[in-house]
Write a structure and sequence with these properties.
237 residues; alpha/beta; Rossmann fold; 2 domains
């Protein structure tokens, strides 16, 4: 398995956010993690990228135990995290934000090649390259956040709520780009989304997290679109 999360537990003080969560992702997949606000979805990604320390359990990536690895080494091993809320640097230009995403790469030619790829996926960023990040629209900031994550040439891309706050047309565009990145760049994607309909349309497989535990593990994301529990809980049915 490409990513293997085993009985992961995360706690914030006396509050258990994740309770023995186990999941796996195969190389080349797009896997979605669904769940309501407060279910613990972001804690899963934060533990993988080592923003949060696991209380117990193991995280195996590409055959290596990364449970207690330093966060900067997680990036070097090929995992990039695009966090909820974008977290771009408002006072830096678009270009400077993107360059920061490549801080683990020492090859200037590789950095330039990655920049050109990002500008191909998101042409608006090229035209805004000298503009400060804080002056971009919400959709452009999301594109910048995804682009910054891709600058490290990741093998695994962690996306936390990429459609949050975006207009429907932009949501479709972002998901089209995610699928293209997965196919063209061979980047495996682990996706957290509250927009369950959009996530399930684009994912290969999906998990559902409820109250810090995996409640559903589906081998076919599209089948969940017909699941009565999913329709009632996440699709407004």
């Amino acid at each position: 398995m490409f990513l293997d999360v085993r009985k992961l537990c995360v706690a914030y003080g006396a509050i258990d956010a994740l309770k023995s969560v186990s999941l796996h992702i195969n190389e080349g997949e797009i896997v979605a993690l669904l769940g309501a606000n407060g279910a613990g979805k972001s804690s899963v990604l934060d533990a993988i990228s080592r923003i949060t320390t696991a209380k117990s359990g193991k995280i195996i990536f590409n055959g290596t135990d990364i449970t207690n690895e330093k966060p900067e080494n997680i990036v070097r091993k090929g995992i990039a995290h695009c966090p909820e809320g974008r977290k771009i640097f408002f006072d830096l230009t678009v270009l400077e934000n993107l360059q920061l995403g490549a801080y683990t790469i020492n090859d200037q030619y590789a950095i330039e090649a990655n920049l050109e790829k990002i500008f191909t996926y998101f042409p608006v960023l090229k035209s805004r390259r000298s503009q400060r990040g804080g002056t971009l629209s919400g959709g452009e900031q999301q594109m910048l956040a995804v682009g910054r994550a891709l600058m490290s040439s990741p093998k695994l891309l962690l996306l936390d709520e990429p459609s949050l706050g975006l207009a429907p047309k932009l949501i479709d565009h972002i998901f089209d780009i995610i699928r293209e990145i997965n196919h063209k760049e061979k980047v495996t994607v682990f996706l957290i989304e509250q927009n369950a309909n959009e996530a399930l349309l684009h994912a290969d497989r999906a998990y559902v997290l409820e109250n810090g535990r995996i409640s559903i593990n589906s081998d076919n994301a599209e089948e969940l679109l017909k699941d009565p529990h999913i329709i009632k809980a996440y699709l407004g049915g």
